[in-house]
Amino acid sequence: MGRLRRREGELSPSRIRSLACAGALIGAAALSWSSPARAQSATETCLAVDQRLSADATLPRTTAALKANGPLKIVAMGSSSTLGLWQSDPAKTYPGMLESELRRLRPDLRLEVVNSGRNADTIPGNIARVDRDVLMHRPDLVIWQIGTNDVTWLQSADSLTGRIVEGIRLLKADGADVILMDQQYAPVILASQYSKMQASIAEAARQERVPLFSRFELMRRAVDAGLSMGALTAWDGLHNSAAGYECIGRALARAIVTVAQTNMETPPKTVRRRK
Predict the structure, then answer these.
(1) Tell me, what CATH number does 251's domain have?
(2) Full-prediction pTM beyond 0.85?
(3) What's the rounded Cα separation, in Å, for the pair 99 and 93?
(4) Which of 162, 166, 192, 218 has a 20 to 30 A CA-CA distance from 107?
């Protein structure tokens, strides 16, 4: 992205000094009167939302791997939001941040995270490459980020529930846990048929009993908490900013560990025998 052009006309040196002094005073005042939401970073404000996986999440294979300290292999499948468009460092993508947060939370965990995102990919495109880009890695957990390009570029969300269900069943065929991730809360998405796509994703998750991690709700709630939409969204109005990728990856890692910890602490249900 090129630099923004300066406005025509130059300011005099004395005018520049005056503006600089005024800016310093305003900046100092802003720091002293900042609200709690502004006093912390955009990432921390976003993480404070404490977004969880949808109800009744179990993740049995992931839980077993975490209980044994690994090995745990995670494959993140999706489009440019997974690949991490506008981030040159793979560690700054959401899968990269997911990995670093899991390592922070579980230092002894033997872990591998594979980023299988592809720019401009769609739900049918994801399904077509499941074997070569996902199942070949023999994952314990697959995180499937979907919906953005299908609505943004194809402008259609009709009849996609069945295709999502088809993809989930392919991913589960080898015994892997599956988490769905929905669309981002961003201007381009909000100008599309996003509600139809959100409904399709939620319905597919319900039918197949797989957990949903809603980054849409995570970002929306963070904005409601005082962040500007631009704090979590890049200049294109669609992809995540660095803070957005970090929040999504770290929040998802925390949600996964929470589910696994709950599963480990919950005693198995006793089944009463009929007399």
Answers:
(1) 3.40.50.1110
(2) no
(3) 10
(4) 218
